[in-house]
């Protein structure tokens, strides 16, 4: 339990500063609530028997001091006093609830931002070790579960606990026997939750897994729409979706119906107890009717608050059980990212963020040198890149070729600074890129095989990540011309303002690649890393893409992963990779000849 609370405390981050204030609000609103209810008993007693004021020295003292002598005056005063107290209490109750709701919703908004920030700034290794549907689920579902079923539930639970304690004190002062009866009414609910705790946990975990399955199936089925349609495997994804949706529905409906149980149980048991209490009091204990009416009036009104307060407190306990997995998931993610940040850059999240955000590029005048670079994926025994050393002069174009699995993409990911080698170094003019990775990345433009395109205009896709008001149109035009996109843009009515659809569905493969080239050129990167598209581009388009790249030879330093030998003819050097090593290197003709 302590570990669980510690995790919640950690996830709360800066929001925990507001907790003392929240408790203060709860205490005041609970006190006002109890005071309002507590005054009803004496009011009913005085109304039914005004003589009691004269008999009670404290009451006659108070009303004497207030100069109220007539019964009419006392009743009017008490009526106004109770009405004002209730209005104040209700207003306080409403605003305290509003405050709690605001706090929880704001905390969820903060958590979404924190997780989104942490995922965006996580290292690439962490990212590829995760499934994107689990990250999406954490940001959408788990933050919701944390804020509503844990945080909000806990805050309501604590506020109800305050109310219950005050109500119990009030009841104890009114009638101890009735309090004991009421308390024992709550016992079955406590026992029920205790015996159901494992099931509650299981339902919570199952609904979370099922939701992740739903997101994953959507990603697979709709994300690969073309393949799904052509292969005709829609029923396969439908079956997956049906199983996940059913599991979610079952787990969620069990959890939701359990949520109602405390209220139903408490109401039933309480009514049975009160009725039995009246009967026993009258039949066996022969208590005075006036006393009974006064006690019962307090209990009746207290029960109006007691039933929702107790049932909400019980449902808090139930919610905490069914969401037991949520703090574990969020804590594990936030902690792992925090640790990776400090291990990989020896700095805090904030300073890493600053390090990743600056825009100064590294000075590059002479050459890039890879020295004895070794990289092994954490899941493999053998290194994917094994002792690679090479040198690229400024303005040169080089290509990596080799069989599938030879290590080309891994080597390029290392050069891009996405993967950090276990040993060896990469230097630019003698300076290690790991001294300031961002400065190195500000020098590099990456054009992957399948360009990631936004469902937005051509203009925003080229100026990727630059706010509209900061787009430099002169640079945009130059990039469009160099990437041979002018003809396409001239043909479409809205030109650069044309939307290209989700993942660029409205463009051809070659056009998408050229948008990628224009993007790298717009960002004026000195070194271009290009993963050549393997999809069979038609001759005309392939020629255009190759021309666009060749036109940059000499002006930019170009690193290509080549899948077709025909496209590397113009390169200064070609490296043939095999099982993570450079097997041979030289001019295109030398490699072909060997
Ligand atoms: N995320 C990963 N985790 C574990 N092993 C990986 C990972 N990515 C790649 N590998 C392994 O590393 C080796 C090199 O893979 P890499 O993708 O670099 O080859 P490649 O030459 O680019 O292949 P292709 O031309 O097919 O893209 C392969 O054996 C591959 O299975």
Automatic annotation (TrEMBL):
Keywords noted in UniProt: ATP-binding, Cell membrane, Membrane, Nucleotide-binding, Transmembrane, Transmembrane helix, Transport
Keyword ATP-binding part of the UniProt annotation: yes
Record's subcellular location: Cell membrane
Highest taxon of source: Bacteria
SMART domains assigned: AAA
Membrane topology: Multi-pass membrane protein
Designated name of the protein: ABC transporter ATP-binding protein/permease
Source species taxonomy: Bacteria, Bacillati, Cyanobacteriota, Cyanophyceae, Oculatellales
